[in-house]
Amino acid sequence: MDNVTPLGGDVYEIDTRMAGYSGVTAGYLILGDRPCLVETGTSTSAPVVRDALTSLGVGPEDLATVVVTHIHLDHAGGVGDIAGYYPSAEIVVHEKGARHLADPSRLMASARMVWGDKLDSLFGSLAPTDAARIRALGDTGSVDLGGGRELASHYSPGHAKHHVGLLDSATGDLYVGDAAGVYLPETGDLRPATPPPDFDLQTALDSVALFGALGPQRLLFSHYGPVADVATTLERSADELRVWVDLTRQAHSEGMDLDHAVAMVREKTRERYSAMASENEETAERFELLSGAPSNVSGIMHWLDRTKARNP
């Protein structure tokens, strides 16, 4: 299939075709003794992911595990549908996200407030998963891939309080979710993902530092794809966080409202990203969809307000 890319080590990247786009959200199949899907993509992507797994020889009873790095709908919106397609699969998520997979009503209501009418076309609706099939991870944990191979889970809550990174013991691949930002392979751009309500700068930097300390051989971004230059990429990830926070802090201290702060940060960061050049209009559109300036600035503003409230 044209949306499946072998990455070596029995790992396959699956373009979930989120909202009909290519290169927006990736799921990954680890095709070992106990096949494991990392990230489901959205609910509307679930049939695309199922067809990809079928093309790789994974039938309804073959998938052992589904793991999500966190429960945002572009990563985990398809969990309920995928659980239905693969009735033997265990669903693995951090303990702070588990109840939302069993009962998605609050998550969907908050997503509707953020996205409005765009919610249905971008993400669809997260279907509930039987709580008995969900395994909740603590701050560390592991997923058995068979044959002595495992995914080690490491709590990394800078992006969201229910976020984990996943390290493959056989390949050294680290599935970074959104905690290292959003990467565009076409341009090599890397931009932070700092949405409300959970963003915290020090926690985010600590998560990036943890990823480096794990010594991965390769980073597998959910947005989007594999990156082999681990140290440079994680350093860039931390730099981008600091740049966006510094600019938003400046706007915040000048009393700007969100719209004006977003406009200022957009202008001052534009030259950092090749994707934002006028000739890359389609790529820029994807960047804004995944790591939109309004979402990023809003998340940082929310954090600054919390920090100010704690330290008046």
TrEMBL record:
Residues of the Metallo-beta-lactamase domain: 24-223
Protein name: MBL fold metallo-hydrolase
Gene3D superfamilies registered for this protein in UniProt: Ribonuclease Z/Hydroxyacylglutathione hydrolase-like
Pfam families reported for this sequence: Lactamase_B
Domain of life, per lineage: Bacteria
Coiled coil: none
